[in-house]
Design brief:
By secondary structure, the protein is α+β, with helices and mostly antiparallel strands. The protein has a domain of about 90 residues: Gcn5-related N-acetyltransferase (GNAT) (Aminopeptidase). The chain is about 35% helix and about 35% strand. It is built from 4 helices and 6 strands; from the N terminus they run ααβββαβαββ. It has a 6-stranded mixed sheet, with helices on both faces.
Length: about 130
């Protein structure tokens, strides 16, 4: 149990480096884990997702600022996609701030397509809804 808490604390610290304007706490990650979300993490990146029926949702993905541009996020997307395919998932979706150009480029380069908009979802910034058929 103590190792899990340390791991979730490490992920929360990494999230703070990735998203300093709105960091998530260890409790946030603990709540996600206990609510059925899956988490993959390494020293330089993490991804959180959940599966409901035959759909999956990427909750958050982050890469340490010093490690960006090395394919870590793409590799994590591939791990998630492979995992959810084994579980019978047919579609994976996510939302991303319209101002987050690096993330939009990541998702587009990994065959995610824009399917909608949530106006003013992120503190006045639109969220772009994206999905990928598996």
């Amino acid at each position: 149990m103590q190792n899990k808490i340390k791991m979730l604390n490490d992920i929360a610290n990494l999230h703070k480096l990735c998203f300093p304007h709105k960091p998530w706490s260890t409790k946030d990650f603990t709540d996600l884990k206990t609510s059925g979300c899956d988490i993959i993490a390494s020293q330089n990146g993490f991804v959180v997702w959940r599966v409901v029926a035959d759909e999956a949702e990427i909750i958050t993905i982050g890469v340490h600022p010093d490690a960006r541009g090395n394919g870590i996020a793409s590799a994590m997307l591939t791990l998630v996609e492979n995992d959810v395919k084994k579980r019978g998932v047919k579609k994976i979706f996510l939302e991303v701030a319209e101002t987050n150009t690096p993330a939009l480029n990541l998702y587009k380069s990994n065959d995610y397509n824009k399917v909608g908009i949530r106006p003013k979802y992120y503190d006045g910034i639109d969220a772009i809804l994206m999905e990928k058929q598996l």
